[in-house]
Structures are given as structure tokens and as C-alpha cells.
Design goal:
Layout: E1 5-11, E2 14-15, E3 18-19, H1 20-27, H2 34-39, E4 43-47, E5 53-59, H3 63-69, H4 80-86, E6 93-94, E7 96-103, H5 105-118, E8 120-124, E9 130-133, H6 144-147, E10 151-154, H7 158-166
Helix pairs in contact: 1-5, 5-7
Amino acid sequence: MSFDIWLDCFRKGHPAPFKREVFEAIFLPFCSNRAEYKSHPSFMQVEYPDGGRADIDLSNLDEAVLESASAGGLIPPEEIGDVLDRAQGDPNFIQHIGFTHCGGEAFFQGMYELASRTGSIIHWPDEDSIFVYTDDTVLKELPQEYFGDARRQRVGSGADIIRAIENS
């Protein structure tokens, strides 16, 4: 698939980082750019025996820095790079993951496992907001201003994620 898919974890309506080791247990065995990832752990490429693959962007941003920088509204484009540099959080945690150029059953099963283990949602751009989740307890943790009216679907496998994307 050639569009963005995001995985985000929330607690009490706010972004909630999870341990990087959970992500690495699932995706590191399939990492095709291990040396680059170890020196710059914000990007990983994975390749699977079934031909599946993904480019994965990882971030953990310090919410206090972001809130301070955007106190007057949107962060001006010329300041975004500086703000993002200052906002880098603890590298042992991940707050947001973006997947691009991704596909394959094994890849989506890994995505499902990560969402399940971290209590995260998976969402993607669509005409009407949509997300999938693995456990009903996740729903009470979401920020309602962003996800309250979104279409939602509970999934039980990577294959369910593929079907949800194809049917959206």
C-alpha cells in the first residue's frame, strides 16, 4: 500500500508513549537497515519472507515543548524543525509510528500485534475519519475531539486490518 498508516497510543485522552523494546521485539527481526536504525532510531525499514515490507517512522515528542511552542496557535513553518529538535523525548519510548510503502500479511500481523500489546489504535487518511483497535478498553482512552465521531472497527488479526483498509 502506498499511503500513510499511523499507530498511536493514548491514555486519558493524551498521547502515551510505550516502550521501544515492544516495537523492536516485533519488527527488529525483519529490519533491513539495522546499522542505520541503530545510529538513527527514528526510521526503520522491514522486509518479510512473504514479500511484505514497510518504511517506518518513529517518534516520541515531549508534549510540554510542543504545547509551549504552539501556545499562540500553529507553529510557524520556519520554526518547525527547531521545535521538533527540541521536543525529542526519551529514545527508549515511542509515541507515534507512521508506516508507508507497506504491505504483506506478515507485516500487518506485526502491526496488529504491536497495537494489541500497547493498547494503540491504527488509523489512516480517509474521507471520513476511521480507526481500528484490538481491545474495547482502548476506546475510553481516546481524545474525543479527534476520534469521537470517527468510524471504528475492532480487529482480531492483521488480515482484519487489511480488510478494514480495503473496505474504507
